[in-house]
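Researcher: Following up on the earlier apo prediction. This time include the ligand. It's zinc ion, with the SMILES given after the sequence.
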Amino acid sequence: MKNLHRHHYHKIRSGSRLFLSARTNYSAASSKLVVGGKTYEDIPKVVYNIAPPMDHKKELYVEHNTRLPSILSALEKAKLTPEFRGSEIVQLNSSRKATLKDIQSVHYSNYLSILKKFVEDAKSGKPKPKSSDLTFAMQGFQYVTATSYEVSLAAAGSGLSLVDFAVAASKINENCPVGFALMPPPMHHVLRTESGGCCYFENAGIAARYAQRVHGLNRVLIIDFDVHYLSHTNDAFYDDPDIFVLSTHWDEGYHGKFDDTGSGRGEGATLNLPLPEGSGDIAMQSVFDEVIVPCAQKFKPDIIIVSAGYDGHVVDPTGSFQLTTGTYFTLASGIKQLAKDLCGGRCVFFLEGGESEGVVSFSVAESFRAFVGEQSMAPEFEKKYAFFLHDEPINKVKQAIQRTKHLHSI
Ligand SMILES: [Zn+2]
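Model: Understood. Below is the ligand-bound prediction.
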């Protein structure tokens, strides 16, 4: 897999040199990185932000508030925190909240009013409203607590701080750090008008709009490798030619279809690649090489936003894929390289799904290893899961890839 990728990157590099120099405005004179009033002597390789935890303690929900602590303890155990890495890995500690303007760039005000109403009711101990309109809008919510609104604003804000960091760093140095927003709720199911999954705000989409509006990064590529279809594909950006949404997901047969490619001016800027049940490392390797790389090259993004879901792992109870953490390492390293080759390294990952805390934690650690340029530890970790792996439906995967390539002329 590594050799294949190297080959691709060589092609990307040689083909994009002119493009990069025209697009990336490095300022050699100002070598100090200043973000949010803080000066960084060195450019880090990874910048992460931890959103405050949700007040969610119920068992059996994806969004359980032990998820983030478990990731953090995995990072510490793997010595992938600032304490062990000095300036190479930075934790932002930003407590910034997204503004109403940020949120409304993706969600309708009506939805916000409804969410606030639920939160107010939760504060006062009232039962959920019975109105059919309200319950429709909130149908996907696992549950709402008194802190849900404020905490969700902070989660969205933590992603925006990472966009700021990436943009500032990319102006100084071509080795821009990769951002990773470690936040509670998987959010790629939430729509403009209603909640979904266990999502409140569509944080990756809000970051995409923010990158456009505040930093003038017009072309945003969103890559979503969560095993589930990202509902916002057909919602917030479906008619937008400047936000390319590329989603690989389990083919459940009723949404996120091949032919859903965007509408109006956005026709062609949505790529759905449903993959058959049982797709694994071989499938994702082919998808990366044959779809993600050429698509990114063709689109020429100014920034890459990643909806990083780890529920495609072979042991995840919600998914139907059989990926291993080695593939998450390769995706992280491949996407980082794509960003470097195509858009000054500007790239921010957003944590999405993944029910197995051990797998999610290790996968985030693997991503950090990829970002700092270290070797994957996946083979050791995966030993205990080898038993679950079986043959992949290679022919079906090939057909899916061919159909996608044909539809999108790549
Ligand atoms: Zn998912």
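Model: The chain is about 45% helix and 10% strand.
Researcher: Noted. I'll compare it with the apo version next.
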